[in-house]
Amino acid sequence: MMTPQQLYLSAVLDKRLTNTQGQLLGKVCDLTITPDEEFPIVNQVLVRRGKATYAVEWSKVVLFNPAVISVASSESELTSYRETPGEIRVKRDILDKQIVDVNGAKVVRVNDLKLGRHKNSLCLFSVDVGFRGLLRRMGYERVWSLVQRDIPEREIGWQFVGHLEPNAARLTLTMARENMAEMHPADLAHIISRVPRQNVHTVLNSLDDETAGEAIHELEPELRTRIITELDSERASDILEEMSPDEAADVLGDLPVEKAEELLGLMEPEDAEEIQELLVHEEDCAGGMMNNDFISIPAGLTVGQALKEVRLQAPEVDSVYYAYILDKNEHPLGVVSLKELLIQDEVCPVAEVMTENLKTVPVDAEPEEILEVIAKYNLVAVPVLDEHKKMAGIVTVDDILERFLPLALKHKRHPAY
């Protein structure tokens, strides 16, 4: 069987297929492939003849190149094509489908596919997601090259591509799971908002709970509500547990009450309690914006003891810029920055280096008031006090700035699908 070392799918689609006697049998309309350890192997050539589709086993192919496609079969030997479960058709199931390009942090379209010989078989080597592939498929590649500079190839090797759906009729593609997990949450959110709705949950299933939570919080509220609602409740609650309490409260606050209560009931009691404390407050006040996870240390410690306490609490806390010194009744006595703790002698009492004139806001403070305090005193975070002057949480500068960003900038990268 004569096949070029490499060729593109676009070069053989709709080409005439003849037998060795030159009799026209039809036109190539697709190829079927089966997975292999390295590359998918082509096992059938599908031929369109009138309105009927026939299948020719690859073992019958004699010549297969853009100029001549010939098979050792007569017209009477053609068999009607019958799809088998799990079978993948290259044109129908891969061409024009979407693929997650983690390097570019975006969803791109498969414009062409590169085929070639490997271990005496015709295999699928890579997918072309570039402009050149689109031009080639449209038949304009050579014309374009005469008037424009060389167009770079943008191909992704099949070894870096995996199926998201076992049913090939709904095939979408993604990059390796470990690469997805390394992406910035905002980039992941952008990708999630672009893939077809039926594949969103499969993308999330390729992520661990913490990474999925970070990405979901970056989504526009309408979209993240829809995703959480449609997710399996156990998985949704696991993801929410990995989010910071204020982020989880943001998500749950947008859900129907019954759904929010269901998810809270599936969470660990301690995590659920922290989130419920935030849900009782109005969204546009300090209580609704604050995070009740913060570094707190008791009075009377030395710097060395305080650093040990910070190390113990830090894995569960998002903001570790400040450590707040509280009395036994949880009233704030002062604050010390992590930088200050690191540069002081370990035997020095924290009381000697902490700032006592603590700037705070009440739990019902409005966003404008919080912003004014943060801006005036150049704070990274401001403590929130409840009606008993106990420390209830902190509002960080990014939390408050998000409230004042123009709507066009908020969630700009991840609109609803």
Automatic annotation (TrEMBL):
<dbReference type="InterPro" id="IPR046342">
    <property type="entry name" value="CBS_dom_sf"/>
</dbReference>
<dbReference type="InterPro" id="IPR038076">
    <property type="entry name" value="MgtE_N_sf"/>
</dbReference>
<dbReference type="GO" id="GO:0016020">
    <property type="term" value="C:membrane"/>
</dbReference>
<dbReference type="InterPro" id="IPR000644">
    <property type="entry name" value="CBS_dom"/>
</dbReference>
<feature type="domain" description="CBS">
    <location>
        <begin position="290"/>
        <end position="352"/>
    </location>
</feature>
<dbReference type="InterPro" id="IPR006668">
    <property type="entry name" value="Mg_transptr_MgtE_intracell_dom"/>
</dbReference>
<protein>
    <submittedName>
        <fullName>Magnesium transporter</fullName>
    </submittedName>
</protein>
<dbReference type="Pfam" id="PF00571">
    <property type="entry name" value="CBS"/>
</dbReference>
<keyword id="KW-0129">CBS domain</keyword>
<dbReference type="GO" id="GO:0015095">
    <property type="term" value="F:magnesium ion transmembrane transporter activity"/>
</dbReference>
<feature type="domain" description="CBS">
    <location>
        <begin position="354"/>
        <end position="413"/>
    </location>
</feature>
<dbReference type="Pfam" id="PF03448">
    <property type="entry name" value="MgtE_N"/>
</dbReference>
<dbReference type="InterPro" id="IPR006669">
    <property type="entry name" value="MgtE_transporter"/>
</dbReference>
